[in-house]
Design goal:
The chain is of the alpha/beta class. The protein is built from ten helices and eleven strands. α4 packs across α5. It is globular and about 55 Å long.
Length: 292
């Protein structure tokens, strides 16, 4: 209709559904051995959303992520978006005491965590937590049973949950630095994330051919907004759990990455590692990070 504000009627779930229809063969996510097209990502997001819904998660409920970069970060955010729930990626590098504060403040219905590198701190924080959150381990092995992210996801139907979601409702909660003594959870709506993604995408000239290496922490808005801009423009998001210069060079060559989030010291390390030209980094055209 003439004059209808279509932009502000969209949710992140709507964007994913449109990508499924428009780009059925395009790669959406790469994470180690995992690769998924937009339809495959949509199926997994729907499975997770339906499993969460069966577990009692609904609009406004928080889903907390405590872990390193992984394709499951974006899957979980989109599953939350389909339900009207709020995705909260927290700083996994925090101490047990700091994690306990975030757990108490966010009061999540579900916590998705990892054992690698942070297991002891997470368990200590969990012991101090009140409430009955469901805990799912995303890096669990096949023997973890119902507490495994993958087992939980597989229990849900891949049919779209078709929950009516308000675009102005919050979909993302990011914790700020502790300027007032403790971190504050800043809320972003579907509309805010989509608008920012469009602006970021236009500034960085992101298109469907963009391949973004998510090497910066996804609990940080600067990294996550480029992730979401890549998603918004139906590009490919590639994930790595840690910043190691040689591994970054290897992934850039293997996946033909066009963008990566790195800071000055890492750029220097990458140049040193590749001083003999063993890796072809010619696909790279953008460093969406602070000036080197």
């Amino acid at each position: 209709m003439a004059g209808e504000d279509l932009l502000h009627t969209l949710t992140l779930g709507d964007v994913l559904r449109e990508h499924r229809r428009s780009y059925p063969r395009r790669t959406a996510l790469v994470c180690g051995e995992h690769r998924s097209t937009y339809p495959e990502m949509d199926d997994r997001a729907s499975r997770l959303a339906n499993a969460l819904r069966t577990a009692g998660v609904g609009p406004g409920d928080r889903i907390l992520w405590l872990g390193q970069n992984c394709h499951r970060v974006l899957e979980t955010m989109l599953a939350a978006a389909k339900l009207g729930a709020v995705f909260c990626p927290a700083n996994w590098r925090q101490s047990a005491e700091e994690l306990a504060f975030v757990l108490g403040d966010a009061d999540p219905a579900v916590v998705i965590w990892q054992e690698a590198e942070i297991g002891p701190a997470v368990r200590e924080a969990r012991a101090a937590m009140r409430g009955g959150a469901r805990w799912l381990q995303h890096d669990a092995g096949p023997d973890a049973g119902d507490d495994s992210y993958e087992t939980f996801l597989a229990s849900g139907s891949d049919e779209d949950p078709e929950v009516e979601v308000d675009p102005s409702a919050p979909v993302l909660q990011l914790y700020t630095a502790a300027f007032t003594g403790t971190p504050n959870g800043a809320l972003l709506s579907h509309t805010a994330v989509i608008d920012q993604s469009l602006v970021m995408g236009m500034l960085q000239e992101i298109t469907g051919a963009y391949v973004y290496l998510n090497s910066g922490p996804l609990f940080h808005v600067a990294t996550l907004m480029t992730t979401m801009a890549t998603f918004q423009f139906a590009g490919t998001n590639v994930f790595t759990p840690r910043v190691e210069a040689e591994e970054l060079c290897r992934i850039i060559e293997a996946e033909g990455c066009t963008g990566v989030f790195v800071v000055g010291p890492t750029v220097g390390q990458m140049l040193e590692v590749n001083s003999d030209g063993r890796y072809d980094l010619s696909s790279l055209r953008a460093f969406p990070g602070p000036p080197a």
